[in-house]
Structures are given as structure tokens and as C-alpha cells.
Design brief:
- By secondary structure, this protein is of the alpha/beta class.
- Helix content is about 40%, strand content about 15%.
- It is built from ten helices and nine strands.
- The strands form two sheets. It has a five-stranded parallel β-sheet, sandwiched between helices. The chain has a four-stranded parallel β-sheet with strand order 7-6-8-9.
- Strand 1, helix 2 and strand 2 form a beta-alpha-beta unit.
- Helix 1 packs parallel to helix 5 and helix 1 runs antiparallel to helix 9.
- The chain is globular and about 55 Å long.
- About 45% of the residues are buried.
């Protein structure tokens, strides 16, 4: 697989946009409740933040979930693990939770999730997705967000067609400044740059946090990537404005993909599975 040429993120952004209105989604409903808990690692955790924002409750990640449950304020919570692969850290979460007596549900893109051995079959909800290279996860979380929010796909398509693509390679660091309600998308963008573009650092947060000193120091090697907000400091800035979680996410994948090189892609294939082996991750289905 390491020698295989892979398409870049922009290809999968378009392919996902074409698939979203055609796919069949699982039939289940999550009631809005303060008892909801959405948890995951990486961008699954960021997706969980969007679910909690819409449906109420809490969003947890691989670093904090055990501490939360050890001081559990509500034993009858509705627990949802979000994990595209249905394995990796999600398996650890499912095993730990069921061992403590909780019965979590799984939101996944894998019809044969490794963590399924810890769950009841009726508690596994499989979302449609394209077959994508490691780390990409364009369609996986886009599918879940589209199911949740049903945002306007034509508006997103029109936006992508008219995007001005910034040259991210001009910079050593990208700071994603995001309208507060879209902070989870900014975190996803930060992770995607780190996963995909060699030699570029990234960070980001909601506007209200960003103005607390994070950009006081000038940096000629930094691009301020503004999503639905404005920056009036000395650094270069690029604005992306669309009032849509899914729209921002797919535009970001498209822009990052347009800056992706063949070497970036090779790095993913050369390094991902070595890291997965070190972490002891299970997949059952990879690419």
C-alpha cells in the first residue's frame, strides 16, 4: 500500500458532496437531552462537540472520559461513542465503559467494527462513507454531520466552485480563527493540516478565545485563516465565510487538498500503519 498513489483531499471533498444526498442513513433518533454524552478521539471527538451543541449534554475525548465517568453525575446518561473505524481508541472506550456497567451506543462508518464485541448489535449505527485513504475521514464525519444538520448542499457546492485557493506553503504556521459556534470545525482544520501538510504547524480556536493574547506577537510566517470572522492584525489573513458546519468542513478539505503534494501523500502511507501498530489499533476495515 505504501507504493500506491492516492488522490488528494480535494478529490474526496467533491466525491463526498456528490454522495451525501444519495446515501442511505441509519434510522434512529437521538432525543435532545442534558443526559447525552458524545465521545471519541481525534476528529470523532470534534464531531461529538457538534452533536452535543445541537442535541445537548457533554462532549468528551480520549484524554478526559475516564475522569468524567469516575465522577459521573448522571448514571443513566445516554452514551454515544463516535468512531469512524469502529476500532482504535474507540475499542478501549467501549471495553472500559462496559466493564464499569454502562452500555454505550456506537456511531460509526464500519459495518464490522472491532468494538462491536463489547456492544449490543442494536446499539451500532453505521453511516455511509466513501472508501478513503488513512487519516482522510472526509466522508465519514461529513456523513454524520449532514445527518444531524441537513445543511444546504447546493450552497456548499457553489461555494467550493468559487473558492480562491490560498497558497498555504508560503507559511510555516496556520492559525484558524473561527466564529465561536464553529470552533469544532477549526479544531478539525488544525488536525487536518497537521496530518496532511508536511512542514506546516497549525492551531486554532473560537474568536473569543483567540483574542485573549494568542495573536499579540507578530509573525510574518503565519497565516490567520478566518472562518466567519475577521482579523485586523498585522499578519496575512484569508477569509472563508459560509454559515454551515458541513460547508466549512468540506471547503477546508478542498483547500488543504489543493495544497497537498505527492510527498505529503507518501508520508501518510509510509508512516500511518507503523504508528497504528505501535498503538495496537484494530480496524477490520482499512481503505
Amino acid at each position: 500500500m505504501e507504493d500506491q498513489k492516492i488522490e488528494k483531499l480535494d478529490h474526496y471533498a467533491i466525491k463526498t458532496l456528490e454522495g451525501l444526498p444519495k446515501w442511505k442513513y441509519p434510522e434512529f433518533k437521538i432525543e435532545k437531552s442534558g443526559k447525552n454524552i458524545f465521545m471519541g478521539s481525534g476528529d470523532a471527538a470534534n464531531t461529538g462537540k457538534i452533536f452535543a451543541q445541537v442535541l445537548g449534554g457533554h462532549a468528551l475525548n480520549i484524554c478526559d472520559y475516564q475522569m468524567f465517568f469516575e465522577n459521573m453525575p448522571c448514571p443513566d446518561s445516554n452514551i454515544y461513542i463516535i468512531c469512524a473505524s469502529g476500532g482504535k481508541d474507540g475499542t478501549k472506550m467501549a471495553q472500559w465503559l462496559t466493564g464499569k456497567g454502562w452500555q454505550p451506543k456506537l456511531i460509526t462508518s464500519n459495518p464490522e467494527p472491532p468494538m462491536g464485541k463489547f456492544l449490543r448489535p442494536e446499539d451500532i449505527f453505521v453511516f455511509p462513507a466513501n472508501n478513503e485513504p488513512p487519516t482522510y475521514n472526509v466522508s465519514t464525519y461529513a456523513s454524520m454531520i449532514y445527518w444531524l444538520l441537513k445543511e444546504n448542499l447546493q450552497e456548499i457546492s457553489d461555494k467550493i466552485k468559487n473558492l480562491e485557493i490560498p497558497d498555504l506553503r508560503k507559511y510555516k504556521f496556520i492559525f484558524f480563527m473561527v466564529q465561536d459556534k464553529y470552533e469544532a470545525i477549526g479544531k478539525m482544520a488544525t488536525r487536518k493540516v497537521s496530518e496532511t501538510l508536511a512542514g506546516i504547524g497549525a492551531n486554532g480556536c473560537g474568536y473569543s478565545n483567540a483574542v485573549h493574547g494568542m495573536l499579540i506577537q507578530p509573525n510574518e510566517n503565519r497565516l490567520i485563516f478566518c472562518m466567519n470572522c475577521k482579523y485586523d492584525g498585522p499578519d496575512d489573513a484569508y477569509e472563508l465565510n459560509i454559515d454551515s458546519h458541513l460547508g466549512l468542513l468540506l471547503c477546508l478539505h478542498y483547500i488543504i487538498g489543493k495544497n497537498q503534494t505527492e510527498q505529503d501523500s507518501k508520508n501518510i502511507l509510509q508512516n500511518y500503519f507503523e504508528n497504528a501498530k505501535k498503538q495496537g489499533w484494530e480496524f477490520n476495515k482499512v481503505w
